[in-house]
Amino acid sequence: MVGMIGRRLGKHTLHCKVDCGNSQAFARAHGSTIGVMNTNLQGKTAVVTGGARGIGRAVVEALLAEGAQVAFCARTEASVKQALDELGAEDKVMGQAADVRDVAAVDQFLAATGQRFGGIDILINNAGIGVFHPAGELTWEDWRRVLDINLSAVFYFCRSCLPHFRQRGGGQIVNVSSLAGRNAFAGGAAYNASKFGLNGFTEALMLDHRQENVRVSLICPGSVDTEFSPRGRSVDSSWKIAPEDVAEAVIGVLKMPARTLVSLVELRPAKPPQK
Ligand SMILES: NC(=O)c1ccc[n+]([C@@H]2O[C@H](COP(=O)([O-])OP(=O)(O)OC[C@H]3O[C@@H](n4cnc5c(N)ncnc54)[C@H](OP(=O)(O)O)[C@@H]3O)[C@@H](O)[C@H]2O)c1
């Protein structure tokens, strides 16, 4: 059974699509708030891709605040080092430069995480890039880079984490997609294709592994105030979703009681500028 619940998160509206096993469970979930009978994140180990900056960084901080141990990767050594210096929490966090497109680097990163923290319970696939050109002007390299990072790498991380989850009796995956995974726009051919693909992959993954106690969720934000845009930060970004708000939604999804799977969350700026 699929139901929709709405909940205010600060100034943003969180629309959740909740998959429940039966109508009684739906009634319980519908009548309760996200804070009731939470899954405890204390002592769990989470992997966050693209965790040095932006949304990923906010998720790393939120997970640490919940008492989880966190391993994150990012593209560059400099970015990882800066994040580690700013985070502190040395015994609870590890960071590594690992290009998510490089399967050998991903394997090494996940093996190092397992060794350091004794297993993996949670995977947040967040690393992503945007390259925005009309389809006729996209290079093959642009196309490959966007699809490889935003889609193929997510498949690889999920596949590689499933054996870790089996050892723990289950796990959770949150894939950070975008409203661009539902709404195409001019100039978005590569980005739209990657995020539409990610949405389809995530739903199939959820159906494939839900009976193994693996809960898979998709988070689709609109504009978030980060350095993601190739054009740089806008002059007035106060209307955008804050990275911390996306992190709050991720934590809400992870803390859902084990009986309930939040399959889809959409986050929108409450008042975008009028066109
Ligand atoms: N910002 C938005 O408006 C928005 C809206 C909807 C969805 N999203 C999605 O949210 C996710 C995060 O976006 P963001 O705004 O936080 O981006 P961001 O501020 O640009 O941060 C991206 C992070 O991903 C890392 N990364 C990029 N390519 C990588 C690679 N090949 N291997 C490993 N790490 C890599 C970066 O590493 P370095 O620090 O080393 O560069 C950085 O830490 C993306 O999937 C994006 O599509 C963003």
CATH topology of the domain at 42-233: Rossmann fold
CATH superfamily descriptor of the domain at 42-233: NAD(P)-binding Rossmann-like Domain
Order of helices and strands: EEHEHEHEHEHEHEHE
User: What is the residue-mean pLDDT, rounded to a whole number?
Assistant: 89
CATH class group of the domain at 42-233: Alpha Beta
Task: State the end-to-end CA separation.
Answer: 38 Å
Strand segment count: 9
Largest sheet: 9 strands, mixed
Which class of secondary structure composition applies to the elements? alpha/beta
Individual helix count: 7
Account of the protein in words:
40% of the residues lie in helices and 21% in strands. By secondary structure, it is of the alpha/beta class. It has a domain at 42-233: Rossmann fold (3-Layer(aba) Sandwich), CATH 3.40.50. Bound molecules: NADP nicotinamide-adenine-dinucleotide phosphate. NADP nicotinamide-adenine-dinucleotide phosphate binds at residues 49-50, 52-56, 73-76, 79, 99-101, 126-129, 149, 176, 178, 221, 223-224, 226-228.
In short:
By secondary structure, this protein is of the alpha/beta class.
